[in-house]
Amino acid sequence: MPNLARTRASRPAERVLNPSMLAEVAAGLAAPQKELSPKYFYDQRGSELFEAITRLPEYYPTRTERALLEGWMPELMAQLGTRTLIELGAGNAEKSRIILNAMRATGLAELYVPIDVSATFLSQTAARLRREYPGLAVEPAIADISVELNLPHRMPRPALFAFLGSTIGNFYPPAAIRLLTRVRAAMGPGDRFLMGVDLRKDIARIEAAYNDSQGITAEFNRNMLLVLNQELGADLDPRAFEHRATYDTVAHRIEMHLVAVRDQVVTIPGMDPVMIRQGESIRTEISTKYDRASVAALFDAAELRIEAWPTDPTTPFGLVVGAPA
Ligand code: AVJ
Q1: Other beta carbons less than 10 A from residue 237's beta carbon
Q2: For residue 247, is pLDDT > 90?
Q3: Which residue lies with its CA nearest to atom 2 of ligand 1?
Q4: Are 223 and 45 in contact (CB under 8 A)?
Q5: pLDDT tens per residue, range 71-113
Q6: Burial of 92 (0-12, 13-18, 19+ CB in 10 A)
Q7: CA–CA distance from 90 to each of 81, 115, 161, 165, 190 (Å)?
Q8: Cβ(284) to ligand 1 under 6 A?
Q9: Model-level pTM?
Q10: Residue 1: what pLDDT?
């Protein structure tokens, strides 16, 4: 893996994805339905494009979840007396602030543990939050949450584990259960789990959210090819792929694909050349939509129980509060 070594040397400890990335990409591109993990969307530009997506008129999840958090967190934090917030996939700290503000109002906020794969991103966020919340300890954890949580040894309890943005929807059911099981294993009896889930609704509305009229989602999707070029020295041509996002009514999920517009051979150092035929696609993301029963099934499998379920009646989106079963 000569190229991997070069990438790691030039960007020391910046990301924890690299060591496993080549093997994962090789396996994904060798599968009958070619597949790449959505975690490869989020380099600097990918994160900026996602931010732009969250502001699109068609993309309802972010603003709906924010409104739910604003409405529910003050009461929930007062009720739980949460002293530690652990956030899986910290994103931009905007939603974290809603929770941290509610914790601060109770006078109990002690520790914030943002978990993310990007060390650079984490140290920036941590520095900013320490300034904004004097008295709050911020201990970022660098981890790929699909593999581990890498939590600090000492955390004041009760703690709240937050997994927002409906990111759970990106995981196939077995991986989703493994992730929730990992969270459950880290929870003490008084701890709680807060998860944002996008709910099933009118298909046209869901499809519009992933096929925006400005083409930002298409650009976000194609950006993954540039991430592979950057990280692995691949020679993917973003102009050779089209964005496609369609709802699967059986699996209840949006699937995003990159569809080849012509036959092509892709070269990635360290692996066999990959032939891609015109019309063939690479699946880059699933975004599963839930209802109460499907969340309950996930929770059951992870030995969690639904304690509360505030939803938005106009735009179905759920904030699920889970407790150890
Ligand atoms: C942040 C992963 C939940 O699935 O809706 C947005 C990512 N992909 N538009 C989602 C995304 C395309 C988003 N998640």
Answers
A1: 14
A2: yes
A3: 167
A4: yes
A5: 999 999 999 999 999 999 876 678 999 999 999 999 999 999 9
A6: middle
A7: 21, 6, 11, 10, 23
A8: no
A9: 0.92
A10: 35
Q: Residue holding tokens 């070069």?
A: 6
Find tokens 């499998």 and name the residue. 301
Give residues with Cβ within 8 angstroms of 93, minimum separation 6: 114, 125, 128, 129
CA–CA separation, 61 and 276 (whole Å)? 33
| Burial class (CB within 10 angstroms; exposed 0-12, middle 13-18, buried 19+) of 272 | exposed
Q: What is the DSSP string of 176-223?
A: HHHHHHHHHHH--TT-EEEEEEEBP--HHHHHHHTS-TT-HHHHHHHH
Ligand 1 centre from 55 Cα, in Å? 12
Q: Output the pLDDT for position 313.
A: 76
Confidence grade of residue 18 (pLDDT, cut at 50, 70, 90): low
Q: Is the CB of 231 under 6 A from ligand 1?
A: no
User: Does ligand 1 lie within 6 Å of residue 193's CB atom?
Assistant: no
Q: Of 201, 217, 230, whose CA–CA distance to 256 is shortest?
A: 217
For 61-75, how does the pLDDT look when each residue is reduced to its tens digit (9 = 90+)? 999 999 999 999 999
Name the residue among 66, 95, 63 with its Cα closest to residue 162: 95
